[in-house]
Amino acid sequence: MVCCNRRCGLIAGAVIGAAVAILGGILIPVGNNVIQGTVEKEAVIEPGTTAYDNWVAAGAKVYRQFWFFDLKNPLEVLQYGAIPVVVERGPYTYWTRYLPKENITFHPNHTASFLLPFGAIFEPSMSVGSEEDKITTLNLAVAGAYSLVPKLFHGMLEKLITSSNSSLFQHRSVKELLWGYTDPMLKTLVGLFAPYNGTYDGYYNVYTGKDDISKVGRIDMWRGERTLRFWNNKYCDMINGTDASSFAPFMDKKKPIYFFSSDICRSVSASFEESKDLKGIEVYRYALQPNTLASPTVNPDNQCYCRNIEVTKNCTLAGVLDIGSCQEGRPIYISLPHFLHGSPYLRKAVLGLNPSEEHHATFMDVEPTTGFTLRFAKRIQVNMMYGPSKVITVLKKVKDYTIFPLAWLNETASVDDETADMFKKELISRIQMLDIIQKALLGIGVAVFILCLTSYCVVVRRNKTLV
């Protein structure tokens, strides 16, 4: 009777162990579905969701740090055609993106439109000097007029330059160069980002993800258009991806991510590089690839971005993007800082540049489950071009076209400690706890099943021996 009870107990234990193991196994797909459903619900852009609260507000503090290229030998360049020598000065830091989205409107096709207001507040504690610091740099008006005026009218431009006592280079404050000054030659406001405060980016129209979570945050229209009108090419004029503040949840690191940047007037892609730990949260680091600004001879997809045959050496020059067509006629060339990934010619034409992947590459750290970007650094250099002229006095000694670096910016933000703790508590810890429970049930169930089954076999064998 005792042996029977023992065998029955071991059988019951094995059954219970198997049941617990099966329960743990069942909880894995069930738990994953619960997690997926919860994340997808909270990732939709609509009032009441976590995504909406982060999307509508200014969120983490975004800073724009500026480094200027101070020209050390302007007289030698003018008088003898010497190669410009520059020294980097900065950072001069501004708090930007502190204003929430405006005119938010939800539409029946599961999209939402909004305006993104621009604003910049100087942060002295994060800067090397004041906004009144003076920089010797290229004369924006002279270089701009040179790029826009055909050679046939260089005589008229020469008269404008001499009558206004202008030159190829100028000495201006940081504040003037960034946000604008009245130019003596053009009699209008001139500046790298003028006007800025009080202006807007957009309208944007983005998918809310309500009907298809894979489309959440993806740009449907910008300024009322589904394609750009800058490049006269179907491929280059595509608006792809999001604005990079977030992506669809449950990211696959094998696939690139796409985003549109109005700063550079085009869409780009980024690829997974490595996993990082950000305040206890695992994030995927995505970075722009070196071929993003490659010459069309290396990356044929970039052929439609080549606009000036002379300046780009018959489209063989890598590392710069002429965005004049989307800058209201301002002849601006965009590159990575210090011409990172650019042709060696660019750094030979202007001395003092030292590109570095660590300091000058653009990256985003994205939490893969939610698709939220928790840290990023967008690094862009603003350049203008000047070249030789037989008529314009200040350009007579210039030997070749020169893309001159004016300043580079690092727009950066990172999740703060409070938000990171909330993120870990509300999402990461719950996912981890569910995973622990699933594995514990499965492990304990299997262990009990094996132990009871083994013990049962031993008891049965022992009883047969005694008989």
Structure commentary:
By secondary structure, this protein is α+β, with helices and mostly antiparallel strands. It has two domains: 2-40 and 442-466; 61-98 and 120-197 and 227-415, no CATH class. It is 30% helix and 27% strand. It has nine helices and 19 strands. Helix 1 packs antiparallel against helix 9 (417-466).
Give average pLDDT, whole number. 87
* Major sheet details: 11 strands, antiparallel
Give the helix tally.
9
Q: What fraction of residues sit in β-strands? A: 25-35%
Secondary structure: helix percent: 25-40%
Gross morphology is elongated
Which structural traits does this protein have?
30% helix; alpha+beta; 9 helices; elongated; 467 residues; single chain
Mind sketching the topology for me?
Layout: H1 2-43, H2 50-56, E1 62-71, H3 74-80, E2 86-96, E3 102-107, E4 111-117, E5 120-122, E6 134-138, H4 140-148, H5 154-163, E7 169-173, H6 174-179, E8 181-182, E9 189-190, E10 200-207, E11 219-222, E12 257-261, E13 266-278, E14 281-288, E15 320-322, E16 333-335, H7 344-349, H8 357-360, E17 363-366, E18 373-386, E19 402-414, H9 417-466
Antiparallel strand pairs: 1-2, 1-19, 2-5, 3-4, 4-10, 6-7, 8-9, 10-11, 12-13, 13-14, 14-17, 15-16, 16-18, 17-18, 18-19
Helix pairs in contact: 1-9
Gist of the model:
With about 475 residues, the chain is an alpha+beta fold.
